[in-house]
Amino acid sequence: MTSSLTGYAPSEGTLPPRAAFASDAPVLSLNGAWRFRWSPSVHEVAEGFEEPWFDDSAWAILPVPSHWQLHGYGAPWYTNSPYPFPVDPPHVPDENPTGEYRLTFRAPSWSGRTILRFDGVDSFFTVWLDGHRLGWATGSRLPSEFDVTELVRPGADHVLAVRVHQWSAGSYLEDQDMWWLSGIFRDVSLVARPVGSADDFAVHADYDGGLGTLRVDVDGAARVLVPSLGVDAAAGEEIAVGPVEPWSAESPRLYDGELVTESERIRLRIGFRRVEIRDGVLTVNGTRVLFRGVNRHEFHPDRGRAVTRQDMLDDVLLMKRHNLTAVRTSHYPPHPYFLELCDEYGLYVVDECDVETHGFVYEDWRGNPSGDERWRPAYLDRMARMVERDKNHPSVIMWSLGNEAGAGANLAAMYAWAKERDPSRPVHYEGDPSCSDVYSRMYASHAEVDEIGRGEGKPFVLCEYAHAMGNGPGGLRDYQDLFERHERCQGGFVWEWIDHGIRTRDASGREYYGYGGDFGERFHGGNFVADGLVFPDRTPSPGLVELKKVVEPLRLTWGERLIVANLHEVLDTSRYAFRWTLTDDGAEVASGTLAVPVVAAGGQVDVELPALPETAGEGWLTVSAVLAADTPWAAAGHEVAWGQVCVREAPVAAPAAAPVGSPGAARLDPVTGRLAGLGGLDVTGAALDVWRAPIDNDASGMATLAATWRDLGLDRMTHRTDAVRADGDALVVETRVAPAARTFALRAVYRWTPAGDDAVHLALGVTPEGDWPADVPLPRLGVVLELPARYDRVTWFGCGPGEAYPDSRTAARVGRFHRGVDELQTPYVYPQENGHRTDVRSAFVHAADGSGLAVDGAAVFGLTVRRWTTADLEEARHHAELRPRDRVFVTLDLAQHGLGSASCGPGTLPAYRLAVEPAEFAVTLRYRPAVNSG
Ligand code: IPT
């Protein structure tokens, strides 16, 4: 046993790979409650456990499919690229957690052959039926089948015994950036193969110039039926089916058919389409494709990679509702049901093989299995098992050899095999251009993408970009501009879809999402595992909301008239209804629908706007394109795209009469110059603040900016009041704000002027002093005010409703919004700066009784309101650790530095950097008493 566990061969006793399909032949699911025993070492297995007479009555019960680590056996372990065991291929340590599974089942009465199928077991398993050893297999995310015809007796009880090891030679090929989670994590079934049935078949459904051709190759005699096309033909025959609607991600037309043998009817879901690289451009049905894609790992916060059908459907629906069109199945073939969903709902799939040897990068790729021919059978086996299983899915438009496996002859062999076996699909591999039909890169900067776009060669895709870790990514809009500008740049796949946070509890029972190091791992990759566009519970993060807007398939802009540009590749605009609303200082004053002529894919049209009433204040017209009727993935009314235009600038306020001081308005400390109260309000502060709790894109992974900031001392600025003096009726406070050990500073001068009853006007001027290091931006520039905790609601007029930052603000629209303070927080798995609302004109932070602090900006400002300090946010390691204080902290920002995606990729683009330079800011602060207090 131990020798095969650490040998180079991929399996023993398994059947040749074949297509996954559904038919009317019976299948018995063996999912459910299995007897289970776990041991921490390969040496502590139960003797005789595979024998039918073995007494397992004292064993625990474990659900199949599942990961044992998520049911109390061993623990989840996260490493990014380093192997979690000594690198000495193909050997693994004796500390090799092992799970033994037993199931007694009653064999159904069916004739023909019987096959035992495992859809996924991590990482090495040996199978016995009634004590007979059937064989063993590796390749965790690939199916393995055993022929049990000779052993299974209809109606009799049988004992299935499976021994699974966490580590094996196979683990060297499975070094993906994710949790190490083991066990039988996908379905187990007993499949009937009636006499005369087909075991495997390949559907070739081609499309060219409006016409379809169909051929289904089968290993036996069969007929192909597609009633809606009038097809009734022999398998193997090339059928000209005439005019068909092609399949594409936007219009996933499937034709239902059947493959009929003497003993079985197999369901066919046929999509006619042609994938081709033409003149350096990747096309589907002759049309250039722009991937609006994501990298999807299979993940659920309680189930790990043992995802349910509902989890898979949730992903697909969320993707479709966020305007995504493509998925890279990073970095292994998904559960086969996911591909059925992609066929049906319409997503292009880059189906990636279960191969990653990233840990060899630390040895400069010396000893990499990809270049060692002893591993060749394992590489080819994995490729064949993926291609054969998934070959009949129209959604799969490219094969991918794997991820981060260096270069080597084994990858070249996989590539050659795939080209030979399936010439209809291009092959992708990022690590070695000689094994790839497209030019694929990860995390290339905007400048480099631009340069590649100007060049010639293979179609260019970013198989990973815009690292969505924590707050971010920034710069999505700028990437999309390049994809739209250069024909060669065919989009990409954001890294990644979901945060792999595991739901867990602290000592006091409070729930939080665990990441690397939270499960006792002494060697781990920390929170680098939480870098998705949706939170672990699949709540969309602001990054996904931004991506949805950036990749929207219609663009609504303004010239003289409304311009509707259709960026769809296939669809015209007939599925959309266009609605408009007019707001006056954020309040809706008129609305209607707009008649927009149907625009073909790629076209655009100008539309006359309705006559709009005059607004008294700032007027904004919003036009949104919503689904006119239900689709399979969203209901009528779902907003797909929108645009906004300012139809009336904010009227310039009449110059205020000379401000008059009123007793009881602002109370300023005569020594510090700080605010100590305003009217009836306990509001304090207004100290200048440059610090933000570093985001992952400042501090994690490859990001170094936070370290520079801390080195300069921007996280510990001190304040000194140099003067508090009267100037007419104004009070002028001169301060110097600077870090310890440094000579540079910011001079901040506050000018407080009475502004009528209960109001004060603050004008703040900030001037850098001394030698600030060149090219280091400030994290933020703002002032912080504090209020009692009961002021926990915010109404603002500005951009919203979600958080926004300089390079991630496409999805923020101008409006009037209302949120509770708690709703303003974005619960990043690892706490960091969040919740900033941008371009705020006015805000009211108030209590339930309607009293509160109104803030009116002379110009727009940034707004952040939270129940904790920046230091609290910086200190916390999990969102659940944050404890509300008895104050509410209101930050009014002059500006924030952008987000970038430097945790893995480029930093903030120059246009979104917060330079150290003179700045000015002015707001009026007003106390508003309770509405019902008389
Ligand atoms: C890249 C990996 O392909 C991906 O799996 C993930 O680990 C990502 O990094 C970071 O989250 S590889 C890296 C060397 C760019």
TrEMBL record:
Alphabetical list of SUPFAM superfamilies matching this protein: (Trans)glycosidases (SSF51445), beta-Galactosidase/glucuronidase domain (SSF49303), Galactose mutarotase-like (SSF74650), Galactose-binding domain-like (SSF49785)
Class of the enzyme per the UniProt entry, highest EC level: hydrolase
UniProt EC number: 3.2.1.23
Matching Gene3D superfamilies: 2.70.98.10, Galactose-binding domain-like, Glycosidases, Immunoglobulins
Entries under PANTHER family matching the protein: BETA-GALACTOSIDASE
Family: Belongs to the glycosyl hydrolase 2 family.
Protein name: Beta-galactosidase
Protein's organism: Jiangella alkaliphila
